[in-house]
Specification:
This protein is of the alpha+beta class. It has a single domain (2-67), classed as 2-Layer Sandwich (Translation Initiation Factor IF3), CATH 3.30.110.40. The protein is built from 2 helices and 4 strands; from the N terminus they run E-H-E-H-E-E. It has a 4-stranded mixed beta sheet with strand order 1-2-4-3, covered by helices on one side. The longest helix has 13 residues, at 36-48. It is globular and about 30 Å long. The protein starts with a strand and ends with a strand.
């Protein structure tokens, strides 16, 4: 599982990072973001690409587990 740390970044950077990571065609990714807009935009993009997204919130950070 590829891990991506996008804390401190605002959109569209986290979406660009997950798009680049998805070019590797791995089955799963884990991304950490620290704002709601990034969480929503990455989730929307991943679901549009056919992935399932599970979100866990902890201390103002969100961990998105993105799987096929």
């Amino acid at each position: 599982m590829k891990k991506i740390d996008a804390r401190g970044l605002s959109c569209p950077e986290p979406v660009i990072m997950i798009r680049q990571a998805m070019a590797s065609k791995e089955a799963a990714y884990e991304m950490t973001v620290d704002n709601v807009a990034s969480r929503e935009n990455v989730t929307r993009y991943a679901e549009h690409q056919g992935y399932k997204v599970e979100v866990r919130a902890s201390g103002g950070e969100y961990t998105l587990t993105i799987t096929r």
